[in-house]
UniProtKB/TrEMBL annotation:
Its cofactor is heme. Keywords: Heme, Iron, Membrane, Metal-binding, Monooxygenase, Oxidoreductase, Transmembrane, Transmembrane helix. It comes from Trematosphaeria pertusa. The lineage of its organism: Eukaryota, Fungi, Dikarya, Ascomycota, Pezizomycotina. It comes from the Eukaryota. The chain crosses the membrane at residues 32-56. This is Cytochrome P450.
Amino acid sequence: MYLQTCAALSVAELSALKLMHGVSSTCDIVYSFLVLFCLQYLSINLYYTCIYPFFVSPLRKIPGPKDHHPLIGQTLNQFRANGPYELYLSWSRKWPAAPFIRYISFGNTETLLVNSLRAHQEVLSTKCYSFVKPPFFARIVGEVTGMGLVFAEGEEHRIQRKLLNGIFSTSNVKKLLPVVQLHGRCLTKTIDQRIGCDVSAVVEVVSLFSKATLDIIGLITLGKELDSLNAKPSFHECYDLIFNQSPLSSGLTAVNTYIPLRSWLPLEANRSFVAANNEVKRILRQQIRLRQIETATSKSATKNPSLPISRDILTYLLEAPPSPQQQWTEDELLGYLRNEIMTLPRHGDPDYTQIEGLRYLNNFCREVLRVYAPAVMIWRQAAHSVVIENTYIPAGTNVIISPQVPQFHPHIWGSSAANFEPDRWDSLSSESASPYAFQAFSSGPRVCIGKGLAMLEFKAILVEIVRKYEFEAVEGTLVLENYLTLRPRGGLRVKFKVAGEGKMKRKG
Ligand code: HEM
């Protein structure tokens, strides 16, 4: 945008100069154009980085932290913070009643963090289509997920959602339970193999669960086992490379957010990321093409719908590390869960109604997603100027929803907001019962389309694991990081041993 404005201004100024001083040589014209263009570009950038945010912007009076670096804003503080949510939560605690909190990010751009329930409702629901995904977000996420429904806007988004909603309806998700259970059994088979003849085994679960989740989504969306694709390197190897980048490659991803260097930097760390990413997309495109041909030729195809877009396969994964602040011990919480799951018939897989009937399991899963929301940031940009909660938001302003902010807000969840307490879901206050108090899947017209499927997967796999094993985390302290989703840094090692009888009786 600046580039076009500067070019237009330079042309106008050059024409005026020519009128005043007569026609000069082509060389002079090009030289003058370049000088004028650079001067203008520099001035505009200086204005927007050094003057506008601090002396002119209508957002400057909104409460927010002032301890930013003069050029890179809060970027350094975010990098130094204890986990990806820490700064947002500390600001939200400092200004609990503010609808928005304003902070300065890289290059002194202003960002608004959504804070109150009402502001969440307006941004995500009432005025949902006044906001779009910012271009830099498309660069970081789009390069991994591709540009499907996630990046469709306005009317195009409404149409795509209408087409896809049916596939993810409760009645369809119900039918997918056997697929999920089948993969749950494959997962426990892997754990059994690792235990072998020993009493217990330590297993790195992030890659194990990621693989199971991917396999389920692959089978549901492509109608194919990803393991059976015979690609070299395999689909899972490429996927692992994308999500477990080297420090240099992660740094490049961060830089790519602001300066789109990714596609032409001749570094090995960059090349392997780009190659893995391209390979994943190639495999998916190929499978989708095959599926489309099958669908076109098969009479029964309409009974077996598949998603027409490749990005849905690279989706959010569940991680559930234990909370350091919890009041109940891990043993007690898992004991309650085990006791409830053990009320299911011993043999055979539970059906959908039986799983949905497990009240504590449902509370447990929602509490995991409340305390450890996998999506750390949901990015938006004002498509046009808009007023929310008496705050004037100019077009182009970046707005961020961080699910942990409403999910830890003391005005919504009370003073125990940071504690892991599954029972809180049985007695919600009017604030915490609001659909905007729990944002792990976002809400409004852009709510996660896979929410029902993700919850079913989470519960069904937990049932499978809890029935078979007793388990505990091996590492004492977990460091969480954000790479597209919340992940334990360096993975999560869990000690599994085959379960005996449930030992804990539920209190009360
Ligand atoms: C625990 C698991 C999951 C979590 C926490 C999660 C979270 C989210 C969140 C927060 C959004 C909103 C993103 C935004 O507006 O920028 C979203 C959107 C989306 N999710 Fe999920 N998701 C999960 C699983 C899934 C699954 C299993 C699928 C599909 C198989 C899926 C497909 C999508 C799609 C297509 C969108 C875009 C919806 C739209 O813009 O209309 N998600 N998800």
